[in-house]
Design goal:
The complex is a heterodimer of chains A (about 170) and B (about 260).
Chain A lengths: L6 H18 L18 E7 L2 E6 L8 H15 L4 E5 L12 H9 L2 E2 L27 E5 L7 E6 L5 E5 L3
Parallel strand pairs in A: 2-3, 4-7
Antiparallel strand pairs in A: 1-2, 5-6, 6-7
Chain B lengths: L14 H22 L8 H29 L5 H6 L19 H22 L5 H29 L3 H14 L11 H8 L6 H18 L22 H15 L6
Classes of the chains: A alpha/beta (about 170), B mainly alpha (about 260).
């Protein structure tokens, strides 16, 4: 890693990196388009080095088919802005739903998806499901239909109060 | 970075480490392929999704491991070449992973035994001296935790269920238990990796795995079968007759149309 460079170089780098973060905040998650990749907490670093942009991306689930689409979307968006980026996989530490921003949680709920609980609580008991509030009527009188839903990151719930089915973004 | 900070690597390609990582990869890949066979056939839509989700995770983990194995081998083989262009004798998954799905009970038993094993294994591997392997293990562990919750949950439900469901899971357990000894039988590669701090001592994993499985079997009111000495050596490429059929289906496209892409 280079420790050299003038103060001006450092400022230019910081400005370039901030610009990349702003661009990334407009790249949607392909499966939950109300969330940006920044909201989702999968962008682990942005570094401007020697005229190249390095973007570190953490996969949510190791088999998530959206991972490659996301890489493509990031590259395309940056290219449209005249930037060439190198995408780097960041496995460690493993992504956690705790990294979804507060803004992301608000957007999820408004979209009808119950956001993950903020603190990872391990459920040890067989069949025990976390209590999740309905994103529409806020009732906690809900039940889990299936731990596995429409995508790897979601479980399927239904509200017993307003009778609406909904997705819960799982806590991992 | 100075040379002293580099992980311990021999100058020659690290054959043992390559084999070790390939075994982990193949077990996940073969088990993932088996679970994928349930898509569209599971007893209920929720289980169809559940098994497909587990399959997806396992194949994702296999991809990370295969890519790393290919780099260790240093012959330019990537994840696809390793998955689709190797013959059965070159696969080194544990024999339990390739056993046919049978009925849902049998799939649940196979899954629970292997999920419990991967839980213990990845818990240890996340502290491996091999940093890349430790990172993959830490990622896989998060997913394996809910895999085990799913399979153990079903084992209890079926075991402590109707006479019919109980009989079916007990039969599956009796049939599959003989494959579990291989999970803890260390050979020269395992021992070498243990010595180098890459992998755990498999014999030490067994009591912890057994305690975990026993707790589930107790709640499921099932009886643990007697141990048998194992003649299975899937890890060394000596497989049951079932692997060939699985590979024929999995590899068909790349074998017939080499290099084809989406």
């Amino acid at each position: 890693m280079s420790g050299g460079g003038t103060r001006g170089d450092a400022d230019a780098r910081a400005t370039a990196e901030e610009e990349v973060w702003r661009i990334l905040a407009r790249v949607p998650d392909p499966e939950i388009p109300v969330l940006s990749v920044v909201d989702l907490g999968i962008i682990r670093h942005v570094r401007s080095q020697g005229g190249r942009i390095h973007v570190g991306v953490a996969p949510t689930y190791s088999g998530c088919p959206a991972t490659e689409v996301i890489r493509g979307l990031i590259e395309r968006q940056l290219r449209a802005e005249g930037l060439t980026a190198q995408i780097e996989d960041v496995l460690s530490p493993p992504w956690s739903s705790d990294w979804i921003s507060d803004e992301g949680r608000r957007k999820l709920k408004a979209f009808g998806i119950a956001p993950p609980e903020k603190t990872v609580t391990r459920v040890h008991h067989l069949f025990a499901a976390p209590v999740v509030a309905c994103p529409r009527c806020d009732s906690t009188h809900t039940e889990r239909v299936s731990e596995f839903g429409s995508t790897p990151c979601k479980a399927h719930y239904r509200c017993l109060e307003c009778a609406e089915p909904f997705d819960h973004f799982k806590c991992i | 970075m100075s040379a002293a900070l580099q992980p311990d690597r021999d100058a020659r390609p690290d054959e043992e480490r390559f084999r070790y990582v390939l075994r982990l990869a193949d077990t996940s890949l073969v088990l993932g392929q088996r679970l994928g066979e349930w898509v569209g056939h599971a007893p209920a839509l929720e289980e169809d999704l559940g098994l497909a989700n587990l399959s997806l995770d396992l194949i994702g983990q296999a991809r990370l491991l295969l890519t790393y194995a290919g780099e260790l081998e240093g012959r330019g083989r990537d994840e696809d070449q390793l998955a689709f262009l190797r013959d059965g004798v070159d696969f080194c998954n544990v024999t339990l992973a390739e056993q046919p799905n049978g009925d849902f009970a049998r799939t649940v038993v196979r899954q629970c035994l292997l999920d419990g094993w991967q839980l213990e294994l990845y818990s240890e591997l996340q502290r491996s001296t091999d940093r890349r392997l430790a990172e993959i293990a830490a990622k896989a562990l998060k997913e394996t935790q809910y895999h085990f919750r799913y399979s153990a949950g079903w084992l209890v439900r079926l075991g402590d269920g109707t006479a019919e469901s109980r009989q079916r899971v007990q039969n599956a357990l009796d049939e599959l238990w003989r494959f579990t000894a291989e999970l803890f039988a260390a050979d020269m590669i395992d021992e070498e990796m243990t010595t180098r701090g890459v992998g755990p001592d498999l014999t030490e994993l067994r009591p912890r795995w057994l305690a975990r499985i026993d707790a589930v079997l107790k709640e499921a009111t099932l009886t643990r079968p007697a141990d048998v000495s194992h003649p299975w050596h899937g890890k060394r490429g000596q497989h049951s007759e079932h692997l060939g059929y699985l590979l024929a289906e999995m590899q068909f496209l790349q074998r017939t149309y080499p290099g084809s892409q989406w």
